[in-house]
Amino acid sequence: MGRIFNSPFAGPVLALVAYALFSAHDVLVKSLGGSYSPVQIVFFSVLLSLPLAFLMLMRDKTDGNLLPRRPGWVALRTAAAVWTGVSVFYAFTVLPMTLVYAILFATPLLITLLAVPMLGEKVGWRRSGAVLVGLLGVLIVLRPGQGDGISLGHLAALLGALGGAVSAIIVRKIGREERNVVLLVYPLMANLGVMGIALPFVYQPMPLADLGAWAAMAAMAFVASLCVIWAYKLSSAIQVAPMQYSQIIWAALFGALFFGEVPDIFTVLGAVVIIASGVYIVLREDSAKVSENRPVLETRTRTETGTFPRASQLGRFDEHDDDDPDKLK
C-alpha cells in the first residue's frame, strides 16, 4: 500500500476517483430533479451532509467564535454559495450533463477575471487571451440566436459558474483572516435556512429509496472531498488540478447510460475550447513569476454549491501552522 501512495501517479489517480464520485453525485441530482424541486434537493443535501461536516468541525482546535472578522465578504460568499447551489442543481435537472459541465468549466476563466479587481492579480496577455478564447468556447456551447435559444437552464448554469468563481476568490482573499469553521458553516447554514423557508411551497413526499439517494449523495460528496485532500497532499497542484476536467467524460458516459443523452457537436467543440483554455491558465499560473495569487491553481475544488464542505476547507483541519503560506488554498 505504501508503494501505491508513494507513486508519482497517486495524486492524479485519487483526483480522478474524486471527480468520478462527484459525477455520480450529479447523476443522483439529475435523477431526483425529475420529481423534486431544486429547493428540496438542496435542503436535504445539506441536511444529510451536516453530520459528516460536524465530525470534521470537531477537529478544529483553533480558538475563537463564529463571528466573522470580515462580515461583508463572508456574507457575499455565503450568498454566492446559496445561489450557486440552487442554480447548479436546477441546471442539472433540465440540461444534459455534458452541457452543464461545459458551462461550469468556465469558472476558472471567471476566477481569472475577478482576481484582477478583487486580489490585485496582474493578468498578462497570455492568460487574458486564454480567457477570451475560453469565453468564445462558452458562446459556442450556448449558440445564442440559434436553435431554441438560451434557456433558463443555461442561465442557471452560468450563474452557477459565476457564483463558484466569486466564492473561490473570496476564500482566497479572506481565508487567512477567517477561522475555517466560519468559512465552512455559514454557507451550509444559509442554504439550510433559505431553502427551509421555501421548502413548504414546493415539498413533495419522499419514499425511502429517494431518501437513500440523498444519503448516498452526501456520502459521495464527502468521500470525494477527502480524496481531493489526499490527492493534493501526495502530488503538486499542477498535477492534480487538471483532473477536474475528467468530469466531462463521466458526464458523457452517465448521460448516455442513464438519460439517453448524446452531446451535440457544438457542446463537444465548446467544451474542448473551454477546457483547453482552463488548462492553459493553470499551466501559466504554475510558471514562476507569472501569478502572485495563483487563484485558479489553488482553488482546489470544483464549483462550490454550499451543500457539502469544500475540500480546501476540510483539508485545513489537518494544518497546524498558521504561518504556512500554503495553508489557505
Which features does this protein show?
single chain, 329 residues, mainly alpha, 14 helices, 0% strand, disordered C terminus
What structural class results from the helix and strand content?
mainly alpha
Output the radius of gyration. 19 Å
Write down how many β-strands occur, each being a DSSP E stretch of 2 or more residues: 0
Shape: globular
| Sheet having the most strands | none
The end-to-end distance, rounded to whole angstroms, is 28 Å
The topology string of helices and strands comes to HHHHHHHHHHHHHH
**Secondary structure tally, helices:** 14
Which runs of at least 5 residues are low in confidence (pLDDT < 50)? 320-329
Helix amount: 55-70%
Mean pLDDT: 87
Q: Proportion of β residues?
A: under 5%
* Oligomeric state of the chains present here: single chain
Describe this structure in words.
The two termini are about 30 Å apart. Helix 5 packs parallel to helix 13. It is built from 14 helices and no strands. About 70% of the residues lie in helices and about 0% in strands.
